[in-house]
Amino acid sequence: MTPSLQSIFEVFSVGAGPSSTHSMGPQRAARLFLQSLDAPPARVRVTLFGSLAATGRGHWTDRTLVRTLDPIHVDVVFDSQTAPLPHPNTLKFEAFDSAGQLLREWTVCSIGGGNLEDAEGRPIDSVALPTDYPVSNIAEAMNYCRANDMAFWQLVEQVETDLWPRVEAIWDVMSETVKRGLTSTQIILPGTLELPRRAGVIWHRTKELKGTAKELGLVSAYAMAVAEENAAGLQVVTAPSCGAAGVLPAVLYFFKQIRRMPTRKILEALATAGLFGASIRANATVSGAEAGCQAEIGSACSMAAAAAAQLNGATLNQIEYAAEMAMEHNLGLTCDPVEGYVQIPCIERNMNAALRAIECAAFTLLTDGRHLISFDDVIEVMNSTGRDLQAAYRETSEGGLASLWRRDIESRLK
Asked: CA 213, CA 211: separation in Å to the nearest integer?
């Protein structure tokens, strides 16, 4: 079955962090479940499976559900044993009356970017307007754009309803999140790691620098500013997830503030980034629980590289090459959040991916855009690589940096 490209506004969703799969998705699911009931129940039990059970506490899934369903009594059950599941991020809602009688149950999957599917894989309550893209991947998009003498963003303009006001609203939230993160007075991020915020300090230190060092410092500060806002559970835009929300805004904010790009050009670049993100969602996944951090940070890096290349004046081939290169060198990246928090290594990964995106966009201008591995090919490889990863490296906090931290804690307690 040929995949269908959905709206770019399935990629860009505004919501509260720290996780699009673990907080935004469950919040939407809880609201939909409540709306499906004839009257408020006496009690709701929500069972979290898979990755939601493994890292739900660090991602605040339980707190999000309790807050969303308030004042109804909520029991959150963490079930990390049950398998197989429709999806690594599966929830089961059960509503009971005062006598303990089951009123309704519903199984739903949080698939990334705040989006939901039922147990059969059908999309639920899309937040975006229906679209009818004439292409199913980036290769087809390039052919279509060549045949019609248009840019990537013009293809998006042709398909999406009321594109520019909606893209501008997304950009407004992105840019405000950068500003808010740079000037935050919060010293320590929430959670047991007691991780200090650093974006503001780095931003101020860049004032002492010049040239390339200053530009790299600014991009780093912008990316970390958004990632820290997300880690604090504040408003961000998924791009394509909360955990990778700092990459694209940092790159675009750099081009707007430092390179003095007009707002219209920024919005066009955002539309192109959305097209690449939509293609990844249609042909693979943007969920770390399904395919590791390559699906989140790798996808964000690709989207940002495509946007930056376009802002640099690149051709269709060069834009596609930049996006391909960005993903190719994130292949195999594991999702191993320490203690389940979207903090270590997530915040620094946003910074690294933003810098890499700019590097890929700059390098591709030195070429004619021709290369052997296509963007669509590398997305297919990302998807298969991610599913081959051991479960410990797919957002369970059981492997990688997370397991190293756990061993360190255990050794201190002996």
From this structure: 6
- Residue 295: which of 341, 361, 237, 238 has the closest Cα? 238
CA torsion through residues 37, 16, 195, 112, sign: positive
Per-residue model confidence as pLDDT tens digits over 350-403: 999 999 999 999 999 999 999 999 999 999 999 999 999 998 898 888 889 988
What pLDDT is attached to residue 123? Answer: 81
176: left (phi over 0), alpha (psi -120 to 50) or beta: alpha
Answer for the pair 103, 33: CB distance below 8 angstroms, yes or no: no
Whether the Cβ atoms of residue 151 and residue 268 lie closer than 8 Å to each other? yes
Rounded distance, CA 242 to CA 227, Å? 8
Which ranges in the chain are annotated with CATH 3.30.1330.90? 18-124
**97/90 Cα distance (integer angstroms):** 24
Compute the distance between CA of residue 402 and CA of residue 54 in angstroms, rounded to an integer.
Answer: 12
Which pTM value belongs to this model?
A: 0.91
Q: Domain 18-124 falls in which CATH fold?
A: 60s Ribosomal Protein L30; Chain: A; (3.30.1330)
Cβ pair 316, 151 in contact under 8 A:
yes
Nearest alpha-carbon partner for 113 in 3, 278, 347: 278
What are 180's two structure tokens? 């808010």
CB 370 within 8 A of CB 317: yes
**Residue 130 burial (CB count, 10 A):** 8
What are the two backbone dihedrals, phi and then psi, of residue 287, each rounded to the nearest 5 degrees?
A: -100, 125
Contact 353, 320 (CB under 8 A): no
CA–CA dist 268, 201 (Å, integer):
31
Predicted pLDDT of residue 1: 56
DSSP 8-state code for residue 188: B
For residue 309, report the phi and psi dihedrals to the nearest 5 degrees: -60, -45
